[in-house]
Specification:
- The structure is a single chain.
- The protein is built from four helices and 16 strands.
- By secondary structure, the protein is of the alpha+beta class.
- The strands form two sheets. Strands 2-3-4-1-5-8-7-6 form an eight-stranded mixed β-sheet, covered by helices on one side. An eight-stranded mixed β-sheet has the order 10-11-12-9-13-16-15-14, covered by helices on one side.
- Helix 2 packs antiparallel against helix 3.
- The longest helix is centred in the first third of the chain and has 12 residues.
- It is globular, with a radius of gyration of 17 Å.
Length: 254
């Protein structure tokens, strides 16, 4: 059933998927000061919520059987109907890796793969959960960026399934495509910097000092993939992989 009261066209939740969750929790807990909270689930297995300054921003989940061993972040695209959007995914050339599944009264969840190979989730909350906008606070998600082998194909796909409108902007690293919805910039995408890297969504977390967090990330075992870069009218950004290989970015707003 479609719920037209749910704000759509924005990423609202970020899950960390790994076979080594203790190591991931240690890294991000030290880097961003995140805490964890255990939440009961209908299947009795429980769910570990990532909490930043007392607010839930995502969760830690064990890699399911048959999934790639590589640790990764999965952004949740909020939709009014997971079933209807899943049908749009396949019609637009993507794949559904996990069919829509109801998670008790919390909502309905599905895992999708876009035509360029990047994984993301569809999330239909059981009831409206605020406006779905990024919180604008340190240590919380502030952006989601697709690095992809085919920007044009990705633009067409996300426009078809979620109504995103694309616009281009110049960046120090080259042309950049911004995805907008409801008149606000919601996410971005750019061409993969080199061959051999899979298409993937990379979440960015807001920080008070990009330089300080970059130094700390390296000290904790992360690897720098893009040094701290000052982007006019945006702020300072940097990209890393954590000790388990999952990519993430940081942003110190201008």
């Amino acid at each position: 059933m479609t719920n037209n009261n749910i704000p759509t066209g924005r990423f609202v939740w970020f899950e960390y998927v790994s076979k080594e969750l203790d190591k991931a929790q240690g890294f991000y807990g030290e880097l961003f000061g995140w805490k964890t909270q255990s939440m009961p689930t209908p299947d009795g297995k429980g769910y570990t919520v990532i909490s930043a300054d007392g607010a839930g921003i995502g969760g830690y989940v064990a890699t399911p059987p048959g999934a790639p061993a590589q640790s990764s972040w999965l952004g949740h695209l909020q939709v009014a109907s997971a079933a209807e959007t899943a049908a749009k995914v396949t019609a637009a050339g993507g794949k559904i890796a996990m069919e829509p599944m109801k998670m008790g009264d919390f909502g309905t969840y599905a895992v999708a793969i876009d035509p360029t190979g990047a994984a993301f989730c569809l999330w239909q909350p059981g009831k409206p959960e605020g406006d779905g906008n990024f919180k604008g606070k340190p240590n919380t998600p502030c952006w989601n960026e697709l690095v992809t082998s085919d920007v044009s194909a990705a633009v067409a796909f996300y426009a078809a399934i979620a109504g995103f409108r694309a616009k281009s902007m110049a960046m120090p690293t080259g042309d950049y495509t911004v995805l907008a919805h409801d008149g606000h910039d919601r996410a971005g995408m750019m061409k993969l910097p080199m061959a051999g890297i899979p298409s993937q969504w990379v979440p960015y977390f807001q920080v008070a000092s990009a330089d300080a967090v970059a130094t700390k990330a390296t000290r904790l075992g992360g690897s720098s993939k893009m040094a701290v870069t000052d982007v006019p009218n945006v702020g300072k950004i940097a990209v890393f992989t954590d000790p388990l290989g999952a990519a993430f970015g940081i942003l110190q707003p201008a």
